Amino acid sequence: MWQGWEVETWDRSLREWYQRHGRALPWRKTTDPYAIWVSEIMLQQTQVKTVIPYYYRWLERFPDIPTLANSPLQLVLKQWEGLGYYARARNLHRAAQKVVEDYQGVFPDRFSDVLSLPGIGRTTAGGILSAAFNQPISILDGNVKRVLARLVGLKTPPKKAINQLWELSDRLLDRDHPREYNQALMDLGATICTPKQPSCLLCPWRDFCYAFQSNLQTQIPMREPSTPLPHKQIGVAVIWNDQGEVLIDRRLEEGLLGGLWEFPGGKIEANETIPDCIKREIKEELGISIEVGDHLITLNHAYTHFRVTLNVYHCRYLAGEPQPIECEEIRWVKPEQLSQFPFPKANTKIIDAILNQFNSIV
């Protein structure tokens, strides 16, 4: 199956298709490895149309690696606010500091050096080095896995055949035109070989594709059996003092939503009311006593591995000195100051509800 002339034919047909139909994305107008790196990280877990405005704003605020490295993490997280998966922003910041420290602020062009940077795996390293330096390094993101699985009629879910798919990606790589090839392969998966209802008749590889020839596009790639996501009920406190300030805390640096600010609270235990949960959590996390008041808002939000319902209540501060027992720091702030801090997406909706009520009263 893998005679040289066939691979060359496939590569040529894909490149010709890309030259006619490839997407005109902003990061493809540059060979600056920093700008390409930023796009690669943003595109992890996030759609292109969402990334583009963030990409422009990011490069305007952090135009080069030294600027990013020397910026406070809170500013970096604020710039990232709304993109989700905040570990990506923290890793970008740490990696920029490593590039400044180890490579004098110049993004490295060796595969092993790029792989050593926080937040960069094999596919991301290949995407950066092929796009920035035209190096012949293969990639295997979600789109590429789907294309290759259909191409060869993969009989197992891609997660169980990663080594086989990497070998195939390496074998098919157009080593004379790696930049174009990798970008074409990603575009093929994003625009033609889509998860549902692929446009097979427009595909340059349809004559070589096992799934198309066998009419198995909807069965390949095979899927792992899915399990329901755990659903957590959370009690959240908007705590007011007599000066009209709200108490917020900054999450621990590592872990989910690390370094972001939030309204304190926690998981509702079995047979526990929402007010009892909120009072208990605030005592455990901040060491203060509060009175739970009116309901503010209820929000549903989904993360990768679980879903949450946030039950948010106004609360009145009663006694005790607030302490950062289970967080990095705490602050009393005026409602109009809340927008200055980086919050998770669900918390920004709480802020909107606070401001709407606050403004209607004022």
UniProtKB/TrEMBL annotation:
Mg(2+) binds at G265, E285. This is Adenine DNA glycosylase. It comes from Dactylococcopsis salina (strain PCC 8305) (Myxobactron salinum). Its EC number is 3.2.2.31. The lineage of its organism: Bacteria, Bacillati, Cyanobacteriota, Cyanophyceae, Nodosilineales. Adenine glycosylase active on G-A mispairs. MutY also corrects error-prone DNA synthesis past GO lesions which are due to the oxidatively damaged form of guanine: 7,8-dihydro-8-oxoguanine (8-oxo-dGTP). Residues 229-358 form the Nudix hydrolase domain. Pfam families: HhH-GPD, NUDIX_4. Keywords: 4Fe-4S, DNA damage, DNA repair, Glycosidase, Hydrolase, Iron, Iron-sulfur, Magnesium, Metal-binding. Belongs to the Nth/MutY family. Its cofactor is [4Fe-4S] cluster; Mg(2+). One of its GO terms (molecular function) is 4 iron, 4 sulfur cluster binding. It is an enzyme of class 3 (hydrolase). It catalyses: Hydrolyzes free adenine bases from 7,8-dihydro-8-oxoguanine:adenine mismatched double-stranded DNA, leaving an apurinic site. 8-oxo-dGTP binds at R251, E262, F263, P264, G265, N347. GO terms for biological process: base-excision repair; mismatch repair. It comes from the Bacteria. Transmembrane segments: none annotated.
